[in-house]
Write a structure and sequence with these properties.
By secondary structure, the protein is mainly beta. It is built from 1 helix and 20 strands. The strands form 4 sheets. Strands 2, 4, 5, 9, 11, 14, 15, 17, 18 and 20 form a 10-stranded mixed β-sheet that branches. A 5-stranded antiparallel β-sheet has the order 10-12-13-19-16, with no helix packed on it. Strands 1-3-8 form a 3-stranded antiparallel β-sheet, with no helix packed on it. A hairpin with a 2-residue loop joins β17 (257-262) and β18. The longest helix is centred in the first third of the chain and has 20 residues, at 2-21.
């Protein structure tokens, strides 16, 4: 009996000690579902068919399925879906007829109160009345078909900034650590905020550095740019609108262009060149006390995903 009592007391003591020692760990928990996908695009099976005949002998449709795998709702009027890779007139279409918006809003993933993830079904985007009206030379011709979707997207990341009464030499223990790597919680999408580090710059200022990483499979463009492939618009590629809201006045950042401040939010445009980009900020602290201050970082941009397939056009005369 005595041994049982000792074991129980030991277990309780270890539990309380673990709770006490973890007091200064600032965990963000599962703020978001996460993931690195936004809108996905693909061809419905059999649309287009693997083979069609030439000379206007066979009408067919090309149907795409698009789905939001991230955590930002995309209105249908913020999408542009285009077919390319072939001359539209060859298939009895105009270039305008090969571009349209999604017929439905593309809703984000949702986490239910049960903890389950609710995923919206794919939306079908149809391009009907396709018909090869030309004559194939030889027995058959391979035609590349490319489907592109350009859409506006936004990712949100959260972290915590540690403020202490003495930023340079804070007292041992306390609610949080001023210097070091900080946890980041990211919403699902191709642009992620990683490697957040904070430091003490002076007696009344903190340093914040974070990295913008492109973890998707598509291409990033400036917001409202329509993902244009024209030579004049290539300068818009890789531009991301970044907003940092620390909840405190006196925030400034380097590594961004076209910067401005509104209240506790500092914003600017980051030029993403294909490798992770680090942004450095300085936060002035007027209220020197011991507390953890939430920080929100959002990235806004246009994004393009591409799907490809091959259509075989066969001679109707052999």
């Amino acid at each position: 009996m005595r041994l049982s009592i000792i074991l129980v007391l030991t277990t309780v003591a270890l539990f309380l000690a673990s709770c006490s020692s973890g007091g200064n760990q600032q965990s963000l928990g599962s703020t978001f579902i996460g993931g690195v996908e936004g809108i996905t695009i693909g061809f419905e099976q059999g649309q287009p068919p693997a083979e069609v005949y030439d000379s206007g002998q066979q009408s067919f449709s090309i149907t795409l399925k698009v789905q939001n795998k991230g955590e930002f709702d995309v209105p249908k009027n913020k999408t542009t879906i285009t077919l390319s890779g072939f001359n539209p007139t060859t298939f009895n279409r105009t270039r305008t007829q090969l571009s349209q918006s999604s017929p439905d809003d593309l809703l984000a993933l949702r986490k239910l109160p049960t903890g389950d993830i609710q995923e919206q079904p794919p939306t079908q985007v149809e391009f009907p009345n396709m018909n090869h009206n030309g004559k194939v030379i030889g027995l058959e011709q391979k035609v590349p078909v490319e489907a592109r979707i350009c859409y506006e997207y936004k990712n949100t990341a959260t972290t915590n900034l540690c403020v202490r009464k003495n930023l340079i030499t804070p007292a041992t223990g306390g609610v949080c650590e001023v210097v070091g790597s900080k946890e980041a919680s990211n919403s699902g999408g191709p642009i992620q905020i990683t490697a957040i580090k904070t430091s003490a710059r002076s007696q009344n200022s903190l340093g914040i550095a974070f990295t913008i990483s492109h973890q998707g499979t598509g291409a990033v463009y400036k917001l409202l740019s329509q993902c244009s492939q024209s030579q004049q618009q290539r300068v818009e590629e890789g531009r991301i609108l970044v907003k940092i809201d620390s909840g405190l006045t006196g925030l400034s950042c380097t590594g961004l262009s076209d910067t401005s401040t509104s209240g506790t939010t500092f914003q600017g445009v980051a030029k993403f060149m294909g490798t992770p980009l680090t942004i450095t900020c300085t936060q002035q602290i007027s209220d020197l006390n011991d507390y953890s201050q939430p920080v929100t970082i959002t990235t806004e941009y246009n994004y393009e995903e591409i799907a490809t397939t091959t259509l075989t056009v066969k001679s109707s005369t052999g």
